Amino acid sequence: MKLRAATLFFILLFGILAFNSGYVIGQSPWAPFQVFSSGEMPAEAEEAFAPLWEVYSLVQTRYFERPIDNELLAEGAINGMLAALDDPYSRYLSPADEAAERDSMQGEISGIGVEITSEDGFLTVISPIEGSPAEAAGLVPGDRILEADGISLLDLDVGEAAQIVRGPVGTSVLLVIERDGETFDLEVMRDIIKIASVRGEILEDNIAYLRLSQFSFDTAVEVEKILKELLAENPAGLIVDVRRNPGGSLQTVVDVADQFLTEGPVLVQDFGAENKRTFSADDNDLAEEIPLVILIDEGSASASEVLAGAIRDRGRGILLGQTSFGKGTVQTWHELSNQGGLRITIARWLTPDENWINKTGLDPDIFIPLPEFEEGVDFEDTQLQAAIDYLLGKEVLSIPPAEKES
């Protein structure tokens, strides 16, 4: 599908460090393992890792250029170990990156304001944050960032690339962007970005609108507060917009989904070997009966897809927009002894009907494209208007994307 420019109603998570494709952050006490403490290596691991220590010893004693930075060697070994998993979402964070990502979940970051992932070795934009320098400069989902200030980002780890892109607030970075087969230069100014994860308003014809830009630690509380205000107006229907929302906390999305669902499943975590855990909603919450439309697009990932998948599988509402990103795994978040961090995939997540949407995404019930962005032309949010029309009982024509040529 063609990529669309940023719009009035699109807000998004993360910038400075470009969190890998919108984590459902596991925070999961239900992970089916315990990490062994330092110095307690199992016998089978001791044998397997013997060559690693042999190499370390040889580097220390034989490498011609000494002294050697042991922290650098350790980080290299960690990154190599995680790379062997061939999982783009399991990764090491330096102490600085760990602190930055924790700050971002509190609602403030610094950098250019873009969410990125690695696809086929290319640093690829999931989405820019609304009001961010990246959005103002014109970055859109699907853009490949090839270079930053003359440094190639090809085949770099996301964390390594982020370190190159970010820098002091008030300075600029020159990016080389590939879009639709063409390359061009783009200069972006770094800044402090404040993230409001929830906002709401009453639209025309008394339709309530709830925008979720991420699932951060306080999002569920904000959703409850704003829903009370919106529902007090007795709206005819509710639109929940998770376009370009890359995800966030697992428990947060379960709590948010509970506001819209009666008792029953929200998602299933599958740890493998028939080890599963179901997360459920209960009854008597705020918005369990109001007609509901969920807006999704190619930037809706992870926790956004959890919410959208639960709404559809439970028959609670419809999905409208474009096919979502397709991230169906769960990561847990560990702080390490050096104040760095580890994000590691611990499970698949499944919709209530136990569908796995990884790499395929959720297709909307009603496909609605967005018009091409044109400089100087007022943007028309056709997806939002279609959602309003649907809730008002008007006919809405689904326009699926054209089949891609193989």
Keywords:
single chain; 406 residues; alpha+beta; 2-enoyl-CoA Hydratase, Chain A, domain 1; six-stranded antiparallel beta sheet; six-stranded mixed beta sheet; 10 helices; 21 strands; 24% helix; disordered N terminus
Summarize the structure.
The chain has helices spanning 43-48, 50-62, 70-83, 95-104, 133-137, 158-165, 219-231, 250-258, 303-313, 382-391; strands at 24-25, 91-93, 108-111, 114-119, 122-128, 144-148, 151-152, 172-179, 182-189, 191-194, 198-203, 207-212, 237-241, 248-249, 264-270, 276-281, 292-296, 318-321, 329-335, 341-350, 366-367.
Present the secondary structure layout.
Elements: E1 24-25, H1 43-48, H2 50-62, H3 70-83, E2 91-93, H4 95-104, E3 108-111, E4 114-119, E5 122-128, H5 133-137, E6 144-148, E7 151-152, H6 158-165, E8 172-179, E9 182-189, E10 191-194, E11 198-203, E12 207-212, H7 219-231, E13 237-241, E14 248-249, H8 250-258, E15 264-270, E16 276-281, E17 292-296, H9 303-313, E18 318-321, E19 329-335, E20 341-350, E21 366-367, H10 382-391
Parallel strand pairs: 1-14, 12-13, 13-17, 17-18, 18-21
Antiparallel strand pairs: 2-20, 3-10, 4-5, 5-6, 6-7, 6-8, 8-9, 11-12, 15-16, 15-20, 19-20
Biggest sheet character: 6 strands, antiparallel
**How large is the radius of gyration?**
22 Å
* Residues in β-strands, percent: 25-35%
- What is the level 1 CATH name of the domain at 198-331 and 347-391? Alpha Beta
User: Helical percent range?
Assistant: 10-25%
